[in-house]
Design goal:
This is Cytochrome P450. This protein is of the alpha+beta class and 541 residues long. It contains 24 helices and 14 strands. A five-stranded mixed β-sheet has the order 1-2-10-7-3. A three-stranded antiparallel β-sheet has the order 4-14-11. Strands 5-6 form a two-stranded antiparallel ribbon. The longest helix has 30 residues.
Length: 541
């Protein structure tokens, strides 16, 4: 009796709930200010469409396909519109009073609640942090650090010389004289940024490894793979950042992908702690980035250095300044090697400067494996490298870099900004509080900007008539007030490294090699194995 009398009321309850659901959905649809913006059905209602593709590591491709299907304006989440018209970047990443702030997505990059220059959404805080670092990142300052960069490059070429001589540092998987250039560019970039930021290279090139010491709160030391930590952190942040209102609570979820991301942040901050402590204890004084940070915090806090803030910024320099450059260099080299005529042309241009080639040849016949750490050998190798003055204006070298950065932007998806006041673009009005972005991958392949050969790696487009105007469409270093502060450093480093390896080595790429990649916050190649030999010597692959 009891059972039969409750059944109808359960039915009724379900019926009412469905009714309420339908009414609420209709109401939401009718009042949705973005209901006319096209996009996937799921993205209209939930962030899961975007989260799914971010988790798969191909958000940039999924959004690109939407733009190909629906046009320049698409909705990629209930509160997020992606704009891919040629006009979009100047509006989404506007300067001055029209500038939009970073969206709460960036909270996923806080380090134990501390904001950095990169992650803060507070405009005033950002300006004060940026002011601190703008001087050491200026073109003049970075040029002043050239000798440090060249020394790291000197160590790098001595290591690669050994690979050419068949010494693979215990790598049993691959045969002689092949190298994963991504790995080695990473070691080089970590050494350079740590030298410039903390006064000493991390020694990755010498070790042939990205393992670094990290310091726990109790002072004990443990070791971690830095590059893997950065990758894991970016991949987790790219997903949990899409639900900023609950991001804080996702830490508690027992999902390995999420816990690994938070653990990576913790380990990276422990590595940065160790770097800062090491530098402070070393007594080195140099007007570098860390010195500026420490001074800045001192001024702000009237004499007390907030360790958390310095560590957070130090960690930012390590995580933003190394693999971005290594990933870009790898992609650029890949594109050059895919096109034999481009490869020949850029090497011919470099040969024309005749940068220390005689010296390179004189060291080529020496026994390679021994005496690696000899100061004389390092000095000879460093002296034999091209200087920035010699290569900085080579048009074709610079065009190969620019074209590689166009096709492979390490931040491929649209970097999200939040609408402060009314925002209108391409006929679509986006209300306050919603998010907008302009995807580098799509805009840097738009035939309206780049022509019908937009998908093709063609450095010539940068040196033809009108080539100089193309730069304004580039988003690889971001745009507007939050654009990359490390751009000067990245360019000088890429010019020096690329000129050095192309002058000193001959690379071969196995036929059919593809640049496989994955996307977290950053889009990065997975590996690039190349045959390598000193120029003018027999190849052993
Ligand atoms: C080829 C190499 C590089 C690329 C492609 C690159 C790209 C970018 C991009 C796209 C942004 C904007 C991020 C956003 O809006 O969310 C950015 C910001 C930033 N980058 Fe780079 N970057 C590179 C190298 C470097 C280097 C060498 C450093 C030196 C430490 C660096 C430090 C930073 C910092 C601190 C920010 C935050 C700036 C701010 O918010 O004011 N980057 N970078």
């Amino acid at each position: 009796m009891t059972v039969t009398s409750t059944l109808p009321s359960l039915d009724m309850l379900a019926f009412y709930l469905c009714g309420v659901g339908v009414v609420l959905s209709l109401w939401r649809w009718a009042t949705d200010p973005l209901r006319r913006v096209p996009g996937p059905f799921l993205a209209r209602w939930t962030p899961f469409w975007l989260m799914y593709h971010a988790r798969k590591g191909e958000r940039y491709l999924a959004v690109h396909e939407l733009h190909l299907k629906y046009g320049p304006v698409v909705r990629i989440a209930p509160w997020h519109v992606s704009f891919a018209s040629p006009e979009a970047p100047s509006k989404v990443y506007a300067q001055g009073s029209a500038a939009l702030d970073k969206s709460p997505f960036y909270r996923a990059f806080y380090v134990q609640g501390t904001e950095s220059l990169f992650s803060t959404q507070n405009r005033a805080l950002h300006s004060s942090k940026r002011r601190l670092l703008s001087q050491p990142f200026s073109y003049q300052s970075i040029r002043g650090f050239e000798s440090f960069m060249r020394e790291s490059l000197g160590r790098f070429v001595l290591r690669v010389d050994r690979i050419c001589a068949g010494d693979q540092f215990g790598d049993a998987v691959r045969p002689n004289s092949v190298m994963d250039v991504l790995l080695w560019f990473n070691y080089l970039a970590f050494d350079i940024i740590s030298d410039l930021a903390f006064g000493e290279p991390l020694g990755m090139v010498d070790k042939g490894s990205d393992i670094l010491p990290a310091e726990r709160k109790d002072g004990t030391i443990f070791e971690e793979h830095a590059a893997a930590l950065i990758d894991q952190r970016g991949r987790t942040a790219a997903v949990v950042g899409l639900v900023p209102s609950v991001e804080e609570y996702t830490k508690m979820l027992p999902i390995p992908f999420i816990t690994a991301g938070y653990k990576s942040t913790e380990s990276l901050s422990r590595i940065a702690t160790r770097c800062v402590k090491h530098r402070v204890e070393s007594g080195v004084t140099r007007d570098d980035m860390l010195e500026r940070l420490i001074e800045g915090v001192r001024e702000k806090e009237g004499g007390t250095v907030s360790q958390d803030e310095v560590v957070t910024e130090a960690m930012l320099l390590l995580t933003a300044g190394a693999d971005t450059t290594a990933n870009s260099l790898t992609a650029i080299l890949f594109y050059i090697l895919t096109n034999p005529s481009i490869y020949a042309k850029v090497v011919a241009e470099l040969d024309s400067i005749n940068a220390g080639l005689a010296e390179l040849d004189s060291t080529a016949s020496r026994p390679q494996a021994a005496r690696l750490n000899s100061a004389i050998e390092l000095e000879t190798a460093t002296d034999s490298l091209p200087t920035h003055e010699q290569i900085k204006s080579l048009p074709y070298l610079n065009a190969t870099i620019e074209e590689g950065l166009r096709l492979f932007a390490t931040n491929a998806f649209g970097l999200p900004r939040i609408v402060g006041e009314a925002f209108e673009l391409d006929g679509v009005a986006v209300p306050k509080g919603y998010e907008v972005s302009a995807p580098a991958y799509t805009i840097q392949r738009d035939p309206r900007i780049w022509g019908e050969d937009a998908e093709m790696y063609r450095p010539e487009r940068w040196i033809e008539d009108g080539g100089g105007m193309l730069k304004k469409h580039m988003l690889t270093f971001g745009s507007g007030p939050r654009a990359c502060i490390g751009k000067n450093l990245a360019y000088i480093q890429m010019q020096l490294a690329l000129a050095t390896v192309l002058l000193r080595y001959e690379f071969t790429m196995p036929p059919g090699t593809e640049l496989r990649s994955v996307e977290g916050f950053m889009h990065r190649p997975l590996e690039l194995w190349l045959g390598v030999k000193r120029r003018g010597q027999g190849l052993k692959v």
